[in-house]
Amino acid sequence: MSERAAPFYCPYCGDEDLRPSEEGHGAWECAACSRAFQLKFLGLLAKGLQAVGTTTGTTTTGNTTTDRERGTG
Ligand SMILES: [Zn+2]
C-alpha cells in the first residue's frame, strides 16, 4: 500500500497533461511545458490538528528595528 500524491495541474503552466516520471518517488513530468518536478510530503501542520473555524487574515505587526550605529561623514 503506497500513498502517492498525484497533482491535478502542473504548478508551472497549469496543464493537466501530467505523467509520472521515473526520476524518483513522487516525480512528475508535464508534457505541455516539458518540466519535471517532484512532490514531497513534509508532514502535517500542527495547526491542522485543531479545529479551524475563523478565517482571519494574518496581521503582521512586526517592527524591524535595526540597531546599527553608523557615522555619517
Ligand atoms: Zn507544465
From TrEMBL:
This is Insertion element protein. Residues 54-73 are annotated as: Disordered. Residues 54-65 have a biased composition (Low complexity).
